[in-house]
C-alpha cells in the first residue's frame, strides 16, 4: 500500500465527528467487550450538523463472530451472509450498526470481493470513532485504503476509450455502477452528487488510488495504467456483481426480519425518506415481517423506489 494513500485515509478517518456520534460508537463497542476492534461512522449523517431524528450508520469490526455473540445462530448468520445489522439507541439518537470481522472487512474492501456493499461505502468518507488498540486502528486503515483502488480499478475499463478519463468522471462512473449493483432507495443521480459534493476530496484520493493501482499493476510506455480486466471482462464482472448484489439485498432483507428488531418499519422509513414515497406498514406485515418485506418488493420495483 502506498504511503500517500494510507496517509490520506488515516487523516480522513481521524477527522472529528459529532461528539454524540463518538459517544454512540463507544457505547456500541461496550456491548461487545470481548470482540470489539473498531467502530466506524459513515453515511449521509457525516455531513449533517443536527443529528436529531436521523438514523446514524456504523460498522462494528470484531475479532471473531463466535467471540462477539452468545448465540451460535447469530455467529453463523454473520459468517454466511455478512453483515448482521442491529438497531441501537444512545443519548437520544438512533442508529443501526453492521457487524463484520476484521478478516471479512479486509476481504470485502478488496477487488476480489463478490459484492460491492462494503468497498462502495468505504470509498466514501468515514470516521474511525473507536479502536481497541493501535493494531486494530492500523488494520481498519489498511482495509479502507483498499476500497478506493477497488472502485476505480473496476470502473476504469468501463470508461469510453477515446480519451484519458477525468478523475471525477471515473469516480462518478464507479459510483453509478455500484448503485446499480444493489437495491437502492436513493433517487437517480445520487451517485453523481456524492462526487460533486466534495470534488477536491475525490480528486486528491482518486489520484492516490490510481498511484496504488499503477504500483500494483504497472504503467505502459504512454503512461497508461494497466488494470486487471479488459472492457469485455469488466462488463461481465459488473453484470455478475449486479446479479449478486440484487440477490444479496433480498437475502439480507429476509435475514433482517429475524435479526433486526423492527426491520420492516426501518425498511419503510428508509425508502420513504430517500424516494419520497408514503409506504405504511400494516399490522399483519409486522406479525410476519419476512413475508411482509418480500411483498413490498414488486411494488417498489414498479414504482422505481428501489433500483
Word description of this protein:
- This protein has 3 domains: 3-149, Beta Polymerase, domain 2 (2-Layer Sandwich); 153-242, no CATH class; 262-303, no CATH class.
- The chain is 56% helix and 12% strand.
- The chain is built from 15 helices and 5 strands.
- It has helices at residues 3-13, 19-30, 65-68, 72-80, 102-108, 117-122, 134-145, 147-155, 167-179, 190-196, 199-217, 231-259, 263-275, 283-287, 289-303; strands at residues 36-42, 55-62, 84-90, 93-101, 126-131.
- A 5-stranded mixed sheet has the order 3-4-2-1-5, sandwiched between helices.
- The protein is globular, with a radius of gyration of 19 Å.
- The two termini are 34 Å apart.
- 38% of the residues are buried.
Keywords:
single chain, 307 residues, alpha+beta, Beta Polymerase, domain 2, 3 domains, five-stranded mixed beta sheet, 15 helices, 5 strands, 12% strand
Amino acid at each position: 500500500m502506498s504511503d500517500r494513500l494510507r496517509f490520506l485515509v488515516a487523516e480522513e478517518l481521524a477527522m472529528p465527528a459529532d461528539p454524540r456520534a463518538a459517544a454512540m460508537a463507544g457505547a456500541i463497542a461496550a456491548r461487545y467487550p470481548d470482540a470489539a476492534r473498531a467502530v466506524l461512522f459513515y453515511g449521509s449523517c457525516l455531513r449533517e450538523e443536527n443529528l436529531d431524528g436521523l438514523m446514524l450508520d456504523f460498522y462494528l469490526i470484531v475479532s471473531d463472530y463466535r467471540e462477539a455473540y452468545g448465540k451460535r445462530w447469530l455467529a453463523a448468520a454473520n459468517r454466511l451472509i455478512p453483515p448482521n445489522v442491529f438497531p441501537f439507541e444512545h443519548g437520544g439518537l438512533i442508529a443501526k450498526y453492521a457487524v463484520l470481522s476484521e478478516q471479512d472487512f479486509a476481504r470485502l474492501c478488496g477487488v476480489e470481493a463478490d459484492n460491492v456493499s462494503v468497498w462502495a461505502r468505504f470509498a466514501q468518507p468515514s470516521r474511525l470513532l473507536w479502536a481497541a488498540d493501535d493494531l486494530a486502528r492500523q488494520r481498519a486503515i489498511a482495509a479502507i485504503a483498499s476500497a478506493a483502488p477497488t472502485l476505480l480499478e473496476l470502473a476504469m475499463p468501463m470508461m469510453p476509450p477515446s480519451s484519458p478519463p477525468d478523475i471525477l468522471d471515473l469516480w462518478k462512473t464507479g459510483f453509478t455502477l455500484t448503485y446499480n449493483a444493489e437495491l437502492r432507495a436513493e433517487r437517480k443521480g445520487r451517485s453523481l452528487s456524492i462526487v460533486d459534493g466534495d470534488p477536491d476530496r475525490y480528486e486528491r484520493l482518486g489520484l492516490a488510488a490510481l498511484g496504488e493501482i499503477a504500483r500494483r499493476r504497472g504503467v505502459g510506455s504512454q503512461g497508461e495504467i494497466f488494470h486487471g480486466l479488459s472492457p469485455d471482462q469488466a462488463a461481465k464482472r459488473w453484470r455478475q456483481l449486479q446479479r449478486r448484489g440484487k440477490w444479496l439485498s433480498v437475502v439480507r432483507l429476509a435475514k433482517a426480519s429475524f435479526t433486526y428488531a423492527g426491520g420492516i418499519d426501518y425498511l419503510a422509513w428508509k425508502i420513504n425518506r430517500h424516494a419520497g414515497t408514503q409506504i405504511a406498514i400494516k399490522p399483519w406485515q409486522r406479525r410476519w415481517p419476512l413475508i411482509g418485506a418480500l411483498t413490498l418488493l414488486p411494488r417498489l420495483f414498479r414504482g422505481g423506489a428501489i433500483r
